[in-house]
């Protein structure tokens, strides 16, 4: 990224002129990353921050981001998809995440997480009646999480009074974990979207999910089951039940849907490697609009 671009970003953050900042895949040196984090700390207008695809690439950068988040009060959506955090890195970041007053959407997909990280993440999904927590959580492609970790997450989701969207695609969940998630969905009063694309499910899982949708009132309106060994007939039955009685009610997604943000005026800076920084005055309808890889 051009040094002048970094200066412009920092100036925009300090002037509170930026609502959305995307550094997705940018090649930042450590010095420039630190400068941006210091500017982030005092920003009061920034609502969405995209650091996907390896921008947060070391323990020192994790610490700098954590320091910024401890002071920042405005960020609602944080995307770290494709960052090599590991459990140790998330442990460094977690105190700032847990205490942030505005954070409602978090993408930790493909972050090399395991069961220890799940224990921390569950703390961001407080039980009904407790403090506010995440509304949207993405944990795609974290194969190091075991069934024990997923069961812990299922319990937290079942009792959360906030979470609306849960993306678990491309994890080797299998039928056993899917059964636990079905119980969580049946218990949750808020979960509206569940993405289980490419998670190793079979007709056994689909039958469990079908029974759940058929026999229990849920808030669920969208269930993504693409790229699993599930018959079209079972998928259609689930779709029909989710749609029953209300045309706007959710559907079973057979193909990967696109998440689109709001269009509008934007300032785009491009470095010599065609990496992009986006700053805009508006937010999309979806808090996780920037998670597409």
UniProtKB/TrEMBL annotation:
Q: Does the keyword rRNA-binding apply?
A: no
Q: Does the keyword Repeat apply?
A: yes
The protein's name is Leucine rich repeat containing 73
Q: Which domain of life is it from?
A: Eukaryota
Q: Which UniProt keywords apply?
A: Repeat
